[in-house]
Design brief:
Length: about 750
Amino acid sequence: MLPSASTISRRLLGRLRDVMAGGGTAQERLDNVVKLIAADMVAEVCSCYVMRAGEVLELFATEGLLKSAVHETRLRVGEGLVGIIGAHARPLALADAQTHPSFAYRPETGEEIFHSLVGVPIIRGGRVIGVLVVQNKSQRQYTEEEVETLETVAMVLAELVSSGELINRDELAPIDGNAILPMRLEGVRLTAGIGIGVAVMHQPRVVVQKLVAEDPEVELARLKDALNRMRHSLDRMFEAQDLAFGGEHRDVLETYRMFAEDAGWRARMAEAIQSGLTAEAAVQKVHEDTRVRMGQVSDPYLRERLHDLEDIANRLLHHLVRAGGDGSTMLDAELPENAVLVCRTMGPTELLDYDRRRLRGLVLEDGSPTMHVAILARALDIPVVGRVKDALSRIEAFDPIVVDADSGQLFVRPSDDILDAFAANVEARAVRMATYAAMRDLPATTRCGQSVRLLLNAGLLVDVPQLEVTGADGIGLYRTEMPFMTRPHLPDVQAQTALYSKILDASGGKPVVFRTLDVGSDKLLPYWNSADEDNPAMGWRSIRITLDRPAVLRHQLRALVRAGAGRELHVMFPMVAEVAEFIHARALLDMELERHVASGGVLPSLVRVGTMLEVPALAMQLPALLSRVDFVSIGSNDLMQFLFAADRGNMRISDRYDVLSPPMLTFLRWITRLCDEAGVSLSLCGEMAGRPLDAMALLGIGFRNLSMSAPSVGPVKAMVRSLSLARLEDYMASLYDLPDHSVRERLRIFALDHGVQL
């Protein structure tokens, strides 16, 4: 019987500490380390590869392979399985490594007798400096715990590899400037995807040469003229985007326009001119003052609006210094066919200055997924990596570059092997997308004939056409808070009615479930000043806010009732913790329905009312709840954090617990049974619905309605159509009472054994 992973980890780390502290050369210590790892992990082979100059991984120590291969076997990053681990900086575990398309045979190692392989990157300072590999003769299924153990060991091993005793420290350092060596930079994913191209530096700032004005009246006239030309330029730009953008993407642009037309901003610039500054200097002064004030704000939403303000100020300066110009930062003719924009930050309209057909990616030194340029890039399917430290100083114009936004990393001046590996990845992604597209009109039906409804999560009007693109059955969650978050003031009933009508029109008769305003916690409104809370995730948020401010909820419900006139209306209340809250919210909806009739309005043809189930306390009242609702939708993200008392915003514990754990699965199964008995429709709209393995488990529990982001519909449908549900249900019956931390690996093996496409 194999020892447990935790036993291996504790024992191994203790022995490694002794080896590290012992005598001998660095090479001798490394040789002893691989022997220890092989013994403790019951593996025939353990090998350590170290990164050399030129992105080459050299075999430095091995237990199990031929000793003559040490310092002789080299793999370029991206070459072979070891090179793939080094390129992607992610673990790789394979039961039959030799069948993997990237397997590279090295006869000098004698590894042909070893079938299974697990490898992890050795990382130091955000850079891959080596790869640690374990191999077995048998086709061994490595567990997640074993992979985690190996990753822990690799962290310790990084100290030895980076010490400078094995190789010169200079070989481990990235080379900046005009160096020809490849370089990998770390960031965070803002928009998924992979882009391959050449770096184009986006530096739109205008340097103001003349500061003091000779005639304030002339400068005021120049400012007025520039503001008018900027407004017309924005109008033309937004009209040109009319077919590509809608809904909240449009709201992003409209919010930008509101910033540009802000009377207070214009008045402050006029005052600066009256003080004796030129129009350009006045724009710069007001912007710098605003930037200082905004930089002191802790609210992340408001801080991100600083990028929009910088964009507006730079655009206005361009109109001032280039009379008659359009404010563009780069002519399309100058843009390469495969451009990757590199900048510190970027406003939403600056991205639109470029020919999107030539853009392959965007790299930002700043950034977050909720910044406006990231929202627009997502709509354009442009991969974006943000928070890349010193990107402008470390990347040269026209450097070849790979944007691996899926992993949050860049490869600057990549080797041919890395280029080939990512080109193959892009091609494989295109093939997968084509396969999923071909399934669009096929039903989401299991091999045993069980139908599953696949729905979309949406929060932008531009998401709604994805119903047609993906073949989804409807929208299971429409997040109505986005228009509230992207506007400088509370949207009125008329504006909300117009938006909700457009959503229903665009849905083509497919059902749309509108979730009422869900703000608070990490979703902040720029015009509501709420007090700081020690634990905002469990504080004044969501339905608690709107029940305390019933006028806000009534206005939203009034808009929904008007928009739903003559057609089906599905309304869902979020973050309900007790039945009394649902009754209160439902009463407000009934009041709006009565008000609509009294005013001569046409009622919706059908009104269905439901609730999110995110708080475990509500589950304890399910019998009382189910007699009062038409449907229930589980929000697995919040439900999990409350069930495990684990803040999902805390990086130390956000990944500590798994949705595919016995307690979570048992709890979900109990809910499905009660809903089935009551005849109430149940769905799940959290992140786990969009992951094929997690979605498979949900089907085994009893879910038949899953709501997810548009890109997940294809992969989940492929899983559904390859699944035999009866076999899964029988297998899962044996998992609920296990004491395991997670049954994810067991379910993965089941899927592999039964041909389920993940």
